[in-house]
Amino acid sequence: MSSDYDKLTKEERQAKDKADREREAAEQATLPYKWHQELGEVDLIVPVPKGTRGKNLDVIIGKQKLAVGLKGQDKILEGTLCKEIKVEDSTWTLEDQEAVHIHLEKLNKQQWWENVLTHHPKIDTTKIQPENSKLSDLDGETRGMVEKMMFDNQQKQMGKPTSDELKKIEAIQKFQKAHPELDFSQAKIS
């Protein structure tokens, strides 16, 4: 993220984020598929002509390659995946003879994808809001750490103290209550 973004006011940032989201959505809408991701997987829905049968489809899922098309015709999509996948855990199915649902298992389950195929428009992965329900999948310690990071990030954005700073303030207040004879008016807290 460039430092130009940091110089913007909160309102300018929100306007820029909104414009970026709209541009991103417009770019994504031009793709011959819709896609959605979690940290560990990517799902695509590729519309095909109604009445398409599985035997009419030509689907290739490789470690870093994806192609979908109808036999004997130009591919609907074809290219290099932006990241590697686990081929043995990735699948495709034909739904209602009008859409190919492709499920890709990411090799690196800790990384958001900017796009599916390298030549397609990218999304800003720093703006992804992970599904909160997925926090329940994490073990207690990791979940606590993620929730603390999310809380601290929100606090910082609002100009409020982080959880560590709140703990320090609480400790100082307790100490002051316990020692009313000490004068803290000139104290510098770091």
TrEMBL record:
Cell compartments where the protein resides: Cytoplasm
PANTHER family to which the protein is assigned, alphabetical: NUCLEAR MIGRATION PROTEIN NUDC, NUCLEAR MOVEMENT PROTEIN NUDC
Keywords: Cytoplasm
Gene Ontology process terms (BP): protein folding
A GO term from the CC aspect: cytoplasm
GO molecular function ontology, one term from the record: unfolded protein binding
Basic and acidic residues composition-biased segments: 1-26
Keyword Cytoplasm: yes
Transmembrane domains' residue ranges: none
Matches recorded under InterPro entries: CS_dom, HSP20-like_chaperone, NudC_fam
Domain CS: residue ranges: 28-117
Organism: Sistotremastrum suecicum HHB10207 ss-3
Record's function text: Required for nuclear movement. May interact between microtubules and nuclei and/or may be involved in the generation of force used to move nuclei during interphase.
Signal sequence annotation: none
Region named Disordered: 1-30
Protein name per UniProt: Nuclear movement protein nudC
Native organism taxonomy: Eukaryota, Fungi, Dikarya, Basidiomycota, Agaricomycotina
Domain of life: Eukaryota
Alphabetical list of Gene3D superfamilies matching this protein: 2.60.40.790
